[in-house]
Each structure stands twice: as structure tokens, then as C-alpha cells.
């Protein structure tokens, strides 16, 4: 089986295993996803979803958050870790959205990359989840699983993994495929415990089966 054939088979099986997927960060506006994905660095989505409730209650829109004291943002988001740098990025990002984009999140990948604290993973998440554009989100689950499954060979650098997957995964499937890898990585092909290969829908096509 070629990598292209393997990729299509993995996409199909994960789609059947996890038919309804989406981002596990809670948001109802694009700017809130931008904030949450910055807070999610080295923090669980579950914790971010709790912390942002206080943040949005006090600062309910882009303008309010742009005007907020960075120290107050830091106080609220501190439970997510790296509070100082995350607060600084969020403040600067909201100011740019307010001043350059009328409070809206740009729907251009390269424009997103220019925002403070936004890297390729975050920009892809925004493009896929908010704007419905093709996206490959190379988080830790994605990188671990595509290496184990054999879609990439020993590549750990996020951008290189992303570029490799663009060649294998149909563009319209990319965003949901990456979300499904998150669910599969949490429930079955785990990082901190031995993978549960016996309950894996990819067991017969995965070279790491039982390893």
C-alpha cells in the first residue's frame, strides 16, 4: 500500500469511527478562538475553556480586550501557564484586530501569521474551523499519530509534517482529519500510556500495532 493509499484508508476509517468532530476549544466568535488557541499552548483545552469564561465576562469583545491592562489579562489567564507572554500576545493581537481589521479576524493565512502569538498551527485552525478552508493542524496528537501510522517517517517538525500531509490528505478532509486524530490520540493511540491497539480501527494497517 502506497502512502497515498494508506492516507485515504486512514481518512475513511477515522471518519467512520468519529463521524462528528470539531474543535474542542469553546468559542462562538472567531476572535475568541484566536484567544483560546494562544492560551492552549502547553495547556489543556478543558482548562482553557474554563479560564476564558472569566476573561470574556470582563472583556466581552475585541475592543474591550484591546483596551484591557495587560497585567489584568495576565492575572486571569495565569492558570493556563506562561501568563505573561500569553497576555502580552493577546493584548497586542486584539489591538491589531481593532485598529487594522475593524475588530474582525482576517480570513487570509498569511495575515493571520503576522498576528502576535499566531503560528502555522493556529492559523490553520482558524482557516479550517472558522472559514471552512483547507487546513492541516499539526498539533502533538497529529505529529505522533501520523508517524506511528506511517504517513510520515520520523518527521517531528510541525511545518515539515504539515507539508508532507498536504501531499497525502485531500484538502477538503484536512481540517476534520486533524480533529479526528486528536480524538483518536486521546482515546486510543495515547502518548502517556501504552496505545490501546486492540480497540484501534487502524490496527491491521498500522505498522506499530502492538509495539
From TrEMBL:
Q: Which residues cross the membrane?
A: none
Cited Gene3D superfamilies: Helix-hairpin-Helix base-excision DNA repair enzymes (C-terminal) (1.10.1670.10), Hypothetical protein, domain 2 (1.10.340.30)
Which positions are annotated as binding [4Fe-4S] cluster?
A: 189, 197, 200, 206
Could you give a GO molecular-function term held by this entry? endonuclease activity
Which residue numbers delimit the HhH-GPD domain? Answer: 39-187
- Note whether Hydrolase occurs among the keywords: yes
Asked if DNA damage is a keyword of the record, the answer is yes
Q: Looking at its record, which EC class is this enzyme?
A: lyase
Q: Which UniProt keywords apply?
A: 4Fe-4S, DNA damage, DNA repair, DNA-binding, Endonuclease, Glycosidase, Hydrolase, Iron, Iron-sulfur, Lyase, Metal-binding, Nuclease
Name of a matching Pfam family = HHH
Domain of life (superkingdom): Bacteria
Report the EC number(s), separated by commas if there are several. Answer: 4.2.99.18
Q: How is the cofactor bound?
A: Binds 1 [4Fe-4S] cluster.
- From the UniProt record, list the reaction(s) this protein catalyses: 2'-deoxyribonucleotide-(2'-deoxyribose 5'-phosphate)-2'-deoxyribonucleotide-DNA = a 3'-end 2'-deoxyribonucleotide-(2,3-dehydro-2,3-deoxyribose 5'-phosphate)-DNA + a 5'-end 5'-phospho-2'-deoxyribonucleoside-DNA + H(+)
* Swiss-Prot/TrEMBL cofactor(s): [4Fe-4S] cluster
Residues making up the signal peptide according to the UniProt record:
none
| Family the entry assigns | Belongs to the Nth/MutY family.
Q: What does this protein do?
A: DNA repair enzyme that has both DNA N-glycosylase activity and AP-lyase activity. The DNA N-glycosylase activity releases various damaged pyrimidines from DNA by cleaving the N-glycosidic bond, leaving an AP (apurinic/apyrimidinic) site. The AP-lyase activity cleaves the phosphodiester bond 3' to the AP site by a beta-elimination, leaving a 3'-terminal unsaturated sugar and a product with a terminal 5'-phosphate.
Name-wise, this protein is Endonuclease III
Q: What organism does the record attribute this protein to?
A: Blautia celeris
Amino acid at each position: 500500500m502506497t502512502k497515498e493509499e494508506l492516507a485515504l484508508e486512514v481518512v475513511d476509517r477515522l471518519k467512520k469511527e468519529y463521524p462528528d468532530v470539531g474543535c474542542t476549544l469553546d468559542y462562538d466568535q472567531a476572535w475568541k478562538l484566536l484567544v483560546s488557541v494562544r492560551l492552549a499552548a502547553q495547556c489543556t483545552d478543558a482548562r482553557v475553556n474554563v479560564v476564558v469564561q472569566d476573561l470574556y465576562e470582563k472583556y466581552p469583545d475585541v475592543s474591550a480586550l484591546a483596551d484591557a491592562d495587560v497585567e489584568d489579562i495576565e492575572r486571569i489567564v495565569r492558570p493556563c501557564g506562561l501568563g505573561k507572554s500569553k497576555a502580552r500576545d493577546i493584548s497586542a493581537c486584539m489591538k491589531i484586530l481593532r485598529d487594522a481589521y475593524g475588530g474582525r479576524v482576517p480570513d487570509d493565512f498569511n495575515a493571520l501569521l503576522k498576528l502576535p502569538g499566531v503560528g502555522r498551527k493556529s492559523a490553520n485552525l482558524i482557516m479550517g474551523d472558522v472559514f471552512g478552508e483547507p487546513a492541516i493542524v499539526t498539533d502533538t496528537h497529529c505529529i505522533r499519530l501520523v508517524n506511528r501510522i506511517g504517513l510520515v517517517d520520523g518527521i517531528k517538525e510541525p511545518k515539515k509534517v504539515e507539508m508532507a500531509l498536504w501531499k497525502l490528505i485531500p484538502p477538503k478532509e484536512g481540517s476534520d482529519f486533524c480533529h479526528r486524530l486528536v480524538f483518536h490520540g486521546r482515546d486510543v493511540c495515547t502518548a502517556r500510556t501504552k496505545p490501546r491497539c486492540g480497540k484501534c480501527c487502524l490496527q491491521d494497517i498500522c505498522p506499530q500495532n502492538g509495539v
